[in-house]
UniProtKB/TrEMBL annotation:
Superkingdom, taxonomy of origin: Bacteria
GO biological process: response to metal ion
Organism: Kitasatospora phosalacinea
Organism placement in taxonomy: Bacteria, Bacillati, Actinomycetota, Actinomycetes, Kitasatosporales
Annotated family: Belongs to the CutA family.
Molecular function terms, GO-annotated: copper ion binding
Name of this protein: CutA
One Pfam short name: CutA1
């Protein structure tokens, strides 16, 4: 168990290049140790109607202590009016991997 020390923070973007830029910027700023970017299909309610569209999901691995900073960073960098930024606690994981996440997101 990790006792909520680590999170997977998710956001989405409708442009692959921009999603990759967000991922790289968060890693470069040491707000996340790594990120995966992959295509998804999103169905959502917006402006009074159901929408359906292609998006790019970005999953960022980080420490819970960085959640507020990472959220603020993603919102500030995002082009959406209301970007999805949600964090899910990591319940368990490889000790070596989680140690790596901690080391790569440590204050420098």
């Amino acid at each position: 168990m990790t006792n909520g020390e680590f999170l997977v923070v998710t956001t989405t973007h409708d442009d692959e290049a921009r999603a990759r830029e967000l991922a790289a910027a968060a890693v470069r700023e040491r707000l996340a140790a790594c990120a995966q970017v992959y295509p998804v299909r999103s169905v959502y309610w917006w402006d009074g109607e159901v929408r359906d569209g292609a998006e790019w999901r970005v999953d960022l691995k980080t420490r819970a202590a960085l959640a507020e900073r990472l959220t603020a960073f993603l919102v500030a960098q995002h082009s959406y009016d209301t970007p999805e930024v949600v964090g899910v606690p990591v319940a368990a994981g490889s000790a070596a991997y989680l140690d790596w996440v901690a080391a790569e997101t440590a204050d420098r």
